[in-house]
Write a structure and sequence with these properties.
The complex is a heterodimer of chains A (about 110) and B (about 120).
Chain A (H helix, E strand, L loop, with lengths): L3 E4 L2 E4 L5 E7 L7 E6 L6 E5 L3 E2 L7 E6 L2 E6 L9 E6 L6 E2 L3 E5 L1
Parallel strand pairs in A: 2-11
Antiparallel strand pairs in A: 1-3, 3-8, 4-5, 4-9, 5-6, 7-8, 9-10, 9-11
Chain B lengths: L2 E5 L3 E2 L5 E8 L7 E7 L6 E7 L4 E3 L7 E6 L4 E6 L8 E8 L8 E2 L3 E5 L2
Parallel strand pairs in B: 2-11
Antiparallel strand pairs in B: 1-3, 3-8, 4-5, 4-9, 5-6, 7-8, 9-10, 9-11
The chains are: A mainly beta (about 110), B mainly beta (about 120).
Chain lengths: ~110, ~120
């Protein structure tokens, strides 16, 4: 199985901050890496697919980068609605795997 | 607009069989990959497996022979069965849709909580 390791596991930040979340894969997954935002009691929302493509309707303050084994999700200017848990997910091979999540909290 | 809705019992006893159905509306069930994902309380997301429109399946190996999936194209539904459940199977179960084996999950159901307790 391909392991995905996210860092940090949790993060406190202010509205307006620039935030970066990392996701490292245990082997190369080229750009088969997706990012989701998950709020309590709701379904996860796809934000970024294929490492760097912004999902339709997702705010432009979200961006993704990386390839191979190292990936990054960046939020350029945190908004109050961005406080949630973020997961990376690899779709390179089955079994599909997710990172352990990064909980983003308001400081 | 594509919508997915999970349904099934919310409370099971240990050793029983978990059976969930996902009903698809707003689009065809054919041509896509239908997936089950779960989230145990306080933990992250875990892929259970998928089934395509022809019935070809992929399952998480650690679930072994306990898991099976099926699709009913006439009802626009796909289903999950997990046998011999334990407390470790307590989770919110989500159904989701992908467009291919390397696709992200574009659409998700709202999730349904299944609790396993004596």
């Amino acid at each position: 199985d391909i392991q995905l390791t996210q860092s940090p596991s949790s993060l406190s930040a202010y509205v307006g901050d620039r935030v970066t979340i990392s996701c490292r894969a245990s082997q190369s997954i080229t750009t088969y890496l997706n990012w989701y935002q998950h709020k309590q009691g709701k379904a996860p929302d796809l934000l970024i697919y294929a490492a760097s493509s912004l999902q339709s309707g997702a705010p432009s303050r979200f961006s993704g980068s990386g390839s191979g084994t190292e990936f990054t999700l960046t939020i350029s200017s945190l908004q109050p609605e961005d406080f949630a848990t973020y997961y990376c997910q690899q779709s390179d091979s089955v079994p599909v795997t997710f990172g352990q999540g990064t909980k983003l909290e308001m400081k | 607009q594509v919508q997915l809705q999970e349904s099934g019992p919310g409370l099971l006893k240990p050793s029983e069989t978990l059976s969930l159905t996902c009903t698809v509306s707003g689009d065809s069930i054919s041509g896509y990959y239908w997936t089950w994902i779960r989230q145990p309380p306080g933990k992250g997301l875990e892929w259970i497996g998928n089934i395509d429109f022809s019935g070809t399946t992929n399952y998480k190996p650690s679930l072994g022979s306990r898991v099976s999936m099926s699709v009913d194209t006439s009802k626009k539904q796909f289903s999950l069965k997990l046998t011999s459940v334990t407390a470790a199977d307590t989770a919110v179960y989500y159904c989701a849709r992908a467009t291919g084996t390397s696709s992200p999950f574009w659409y998700w159901g709202q999730g349904t909580l299944v609790t396993v307790s004596a």
